[in-house]
Amino acid sequence: MIKRTLFFANPAYLSTKNDQLLVQFPEEEKQKAKVAIEDIGYIVLEHPQITITNGLLMKLIQNKTAVITCDQQHMPCSFLQPLVGHSEQSERIRYQLSASLPLKKNLWQQTVQVKIENQARHLLERGRNA
How would you summarize the oligomeric state and partners of this protein (predicted)? Predict the structure, then answer.
């Protein structure tokens, strides 16, 4: 089964009850939500006013759910995953570690090129909007 990715871009309070993720919003017009923890693969926390309980974190990790937090620029800054990894994650890490040096260098070169292109695009957009 494909696991769900949940993205939180607004203030929220995240907790757990009966193996479900409970989502409460400070705005009264937004309804509470529930999601079965076993259906979640990733959670992305983008807003700085998101509160998450330790009980929820433990249940997410026990279900091999990754939690990604973002900084003020909306860029991922941390990645929380279980110490006992998912078989797919372990396999990916094993492939990355066993990659040949030329492949690693080529991939690093591609990464740097794309980062430079993205930075240039960002600076151009910023210059237009100034």
Answer: Homodimer, forms a heterotetramer with a Cas2 homodimer.
With a pLDDT cut of 90, the percent of the chain lying above it is 65
CA torsion 105-111-114-118 (nearest 10°) is: -150
Contacts 24+ apart (CB under 8 A), 17-25: 19/59, 21/56, 21/60
* 67-81 residue pLDDT tens: 999 999 889 999 998
Q: What is the pLDDT of residue 23?
A: 96
The token pair that represents 19 in the structure block: 């193996």
Q: Which residues contact 69 (CB under 8 A, 6 or more apart)?
A: 45, 76, 77, 78, 80
Sequence-ordered list of residues with C-beta below 8 angstroms from that of 50, at least 6 positions apart, any chain = 8, 11, 12, 13, 14
Are the CB atoms for 19 and 7 separated by under 8 Å? no
Total-model pTM: 0.64
Placement of tokens 């193996």 in the chain: 19
DSSP three-state, residue 62: helix
Tokens of 119: 């930075």
